[in-house]
């Protein structure tokens, strides 16, 4: 079969850029029947060593220090944007202006306004987009989504999502751009809880109303003496700089058009959890639980009666998301890198078919609007409506949330 060649350009050759590159390369093995074949054309990074790595290790045909050369290259059909948050808007708008479909990591913008700009630019340029909402791609999560959609849990009543990590638990963790509002935007709200918001939305319904609190547990961090990559430890003798955004966030939510309510929390300073990302969904006829630590397992309880009542462990298998593209039968684990390969395939499938398969920047805007409402609530302690994507709060949206409050007995 003759496959359509899709030229790939990469902007930023950090950990995520390297993972995107690996994901593209893995498509040929996981999806041999795909109608397209990615070709790694050119990568850009402002650090020469990273640019060299793109050619010598990742397999790009060439590299550059200027991202504009990637977007101007006629052999580049699509672009991966893997730069820090404060560069997302600039690079995404430039990609859209160049007519290049792009796969970008979350948070897509530092705030909802920047994300709105990216959405509008992509729409105006009519380019396909994809966003790295990785955890929704887990086959067990896709199984959970099917059970919920089929009504197997009955009416969903409440949801819990937790995204607990320890990557910033050490007070000597170096002060980087992640702790500056001007460059990162929010802290753990955008970095981790955006994933939790997407999971809740993907499985149940959009979040319609929020009340939240945040906390900065470690108020100062040492400034490293040299350049850093990822999460590294600095010296206790280095000067301290203030942490400007939140280490911990939690929110109570009401889901739009539903009686369901939820509790979502995230931490980057939890001592104990490494990447303890979990969800629970409860309904009138059953419930389910999933955790990233056991990514290929789903705990399911269906029915309220019987002599034996409890959870059954369901192993991911063919028919659950894209599981069959990676493993021949249930009980064989997939990993995080496989989920990025699913993302890469969905992105290029969206490009090849002109049909949105991957989560798009519109999904990122939906999450960003929830983060925006949570930040406002954390400041004043009140409930806040989540503005509909692409709009401010409208009378129609307010009326819809009033209906939700009446259903839940809150109005």
Automatic annotation (TrEMBL):
Q: What is this protein called?
A: Gfo/Idh/MocA family oxidoreductase
UniProt keyword annotations, A-Z: NAD, Oxidoreductase
Q: Where is the Gfo/Idh/MocA-like oxidoreductase N-terminal domain?
A: 7-133
Amino acid composition bias (Basic and acidic residues), ranges on this chain: 394-405
Tell me the segments the record calls region Disordered: 390-411
Q: Which domain of life is it from?
A: Bacteria
Which positions fall inside the GFO/IDH/MocA-like oxidoreductase domain? 141-289
Entry-linked InterPro entries: Gfo/Idh/MocA-like_OxRdtase_N (IPR000683), Gfo/Idh/MocA_oxidrdct_glycsds (IPR050463), GFO_IDH_MocA-like_dom (IPR055170), NAD(P)-bd_dom_sf (IPR036291)
């Amino acid at each position: 079969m003759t496959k359509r060649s899709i030229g790939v350009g990469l902007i930023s050759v950090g950990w995520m850029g390297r993972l995107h590159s690996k994901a593209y390369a893995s498509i040929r093995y996981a999806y041999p029947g795909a109608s397209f074949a990615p070709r790694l054309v050119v990568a850009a990074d402002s650090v020469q060593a990273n640019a060299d790595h793109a050619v010598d290790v990742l397999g790009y045909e060439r590299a550059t220090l200027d991202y504009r050369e990637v977007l101007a290259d006629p052999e580049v059909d699509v672009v991966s944007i893997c730069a820090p948050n404060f560069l997302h808007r600039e690079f995404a708008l430039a990609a859209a202006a160049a007519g290049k479909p792009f796969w970008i990591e979350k948070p897509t913008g530092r705030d909802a306004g920047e994300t709105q700009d990216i959405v509008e630019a992509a729409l105006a340029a009519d380019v396909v987009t994809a966003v790295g909402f990785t955890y929704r791609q887990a086959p067990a999560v896709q199984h959970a989504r099917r059970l919920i959609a089929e009504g197997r849990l009955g009416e969903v009543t409440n949801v819990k999502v937790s995204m607990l990590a320890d990557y910033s638990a050490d007070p000597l963790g170096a002060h980087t751009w992640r702790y500056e509002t001007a460059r990162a935007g929010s802290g753990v709200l955008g970095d981790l809880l955006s994933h939790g918001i997407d999971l809740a939305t993907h499985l149940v319904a959009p979040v319609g109303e929020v009340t939240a609190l945040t906390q900065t547990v470690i108020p100062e961090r040492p400034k490293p003496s040299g350049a850093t990559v990822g999460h590294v430890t600095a010296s206790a003798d280095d000067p301290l700089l203030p942490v400007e955004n939140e280490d911990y966030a939690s929110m109570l939510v009401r889901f739009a058009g539903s009686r369901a309510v939820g509790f979502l929390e995230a931490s980057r300073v939890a001592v104990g959890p490494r990447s303890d990302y979990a969800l629970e969904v409860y309904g009138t006829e059953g419930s389910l639980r999933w955790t990233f630590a056991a990514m290929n397992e789903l705990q399911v309880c269906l029915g309220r009666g019987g002599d034996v009542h409890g959870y059954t462990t369901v192993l991911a298998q063919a028919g659950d998301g894209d599981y069959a593209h990676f493993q021949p039968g249930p009980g064989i684990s997939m990993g995080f890198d496989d989920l990025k390969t699913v993302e890469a395939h969905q992105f290029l499938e969206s490009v090849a078919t002109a049909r949105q398969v991957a989560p798009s920047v519109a999904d990122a805007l939906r999450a960003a609007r929830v983060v925006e409402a949570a930040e406002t609530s954390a400041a004043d302690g009140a409930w806040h409506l989540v503005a509909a994507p692409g709009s401010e709060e409208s009378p129609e949206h307010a009326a819809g949330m009033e209906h939700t409050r009446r259903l839940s007995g809150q109005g």
